[in-house]
Amino acid sequence: MKALIFAAGLGERMRPLTDTTPKPLLPVGGKPLIEWHLEKLAALGIREVVVNTSWLAEQFPAALGDGARWDLRVHYAFEGDIPLETGGGMWNALPLLGDAPFLLVNGDVWTDFDFAALPREPRGLAHLVMVDRPPQATHGDFALDAGGCVRADGAHKLTYAGIGVYRPQLLERWRDAIPEPALANGKPKFPLAPVLRAHMAAGRITGEYHRGRWTDVGTPERLARLDAQLTQEAL
Prior knowledge:
alpha/beta, 5 helices, 15 strands, globular
């Protein structure tokens, strides 16, 4: 299994820190956010990781190299100067990911979720990790039914953790959900959520609920709070 790390965002809410450093390379607990993921992926036995880049893209290979220090092969999928959003970013990375299911993780989250708990072969087109709604996003994203299917609506919405296993076939007919996508750098730019929702009614998107720790490191305040927690735990 290969893995994809989303690392192309502008990190606008994290400014001024992200004026000079991409958000996944900001340090927390003594190392860049993205290194926490690389270590976990390597421990899982994954050997090839694709990192999609855009904003300050040159800093990623400078910081991570080819991944050899984690016994990984790291490939970089450059989106261009304008990020392609989650759907466009995944579409752009597919040539490097191949035809098999791949693990996806957002480069700007931190979690104690065990990647080994994810299925290597999702029952449908994707398997998502869901968490409780954080204070900064109380509306939630999707609901999780008793049978383990993710639904677009429900009585108790959860937040998508930015972690999952995806089949490349999810994007085969993405234009059915987004018929007129924006273009950036000559490539389609679109969000992933509408594509996922288009398959939810048929039960093709499954998920699980993570009750442990998870942080969307989206602001300098949340970064500082997480850094303090992890630093204290390491003492």
